[in-house]
Amino acid sequence: MLDINNLSKSFGGVMAVDDVTFEVASGTIHSVIGPNGAGKTTLFNLITGVYTPTCGNVLFSGKDITGMRPDQLAGLGMSRTFQNLRVCMNMSACENVMLGAHLRLNHGILAGMANLPALARRDAECRDEAHGFMQFAGVGQYVDAHASQMPFGALKRLEIARALATKPTILLLDEPAAGLNHTETGEISELIKKIAGSGLTVVLVEHDMKMVMNISDFVTVLNYGTRLASGTVAEVRQNPEVISAYLGTSVQ
Ligand SMILES: Nc1ncnc2c1ncn2[C@@H]1O[C@H](COP(=O)(O)OP(=O)(O)O)[C@@H](O)[C@H]1O
Ligand SMILES: [Mg+2]
Q1: 152-162, pLDDT tens digit by residue?
Q2: pTM of the predicted model, to two decimals?
Q3: Angle CA(73)–CA(188)–CA(172) in degrees, nearest 5?
């Protein structure tokens, strides 16, 4: 589903992503792991059109999407969440999710934001649909809540609901469990498995190694911007370079 070929991005003298190549198979959960600063978020930003690569290319279902804008990619079926929450705190929970649906319908998030009150009045269907995604993501009880009233764990799920509202075929999640407690992390794992079970391909950046090893079909390991290893969970776990990069502890 994704073909990442020799992808590189430099910021001044820093090679944040350095000649990274791997494939993401359709219908799988594929995790990208690596120490802080390894280039995981930059890789997501390259795949999702936030940054243009210094070199290399990305194919999405065989189509070259290198340099395409995030809204164009949303139209093709790619959606993502962010490492730092990007929930609009001056909107209701439901309106946040409706932004996702509106991105799909109008291919322009700014237009969506400008017209959101009118849209909300006109289109009850859109609201029902958003509520459905909120229920799927386990935050259905917040349908009438303001985003600013929601606890952090629920906001992380709300972002996932918004990403799902674009009806993607591939979903990229940047540290969905960051800041969550053990129970919430378990619940997010279940949600990610449910998303993959519904037929989506999931690319996951996550620090919680237990979670990654539990739910991933494939794992790619980055270190200093380069690809250290890529393979099944079992393969990556046994890889001596991976073990030494993680000091032999985190991947057990
Ligand atoms: N916009 C940017 N400008 C300059 N340097 C950046 C930028 N984004 C990331 N970097 C650098 O690129 C490297 C990789 O960062 P990042 O992709 O955020 O890593 P990770 O998500 O794995 O923690 C780091 O050295 C970081 O400081
Ligand atoms: Mg990051």
Answers
A1: 999 999 999 99
A2: 0.90
A3: 15
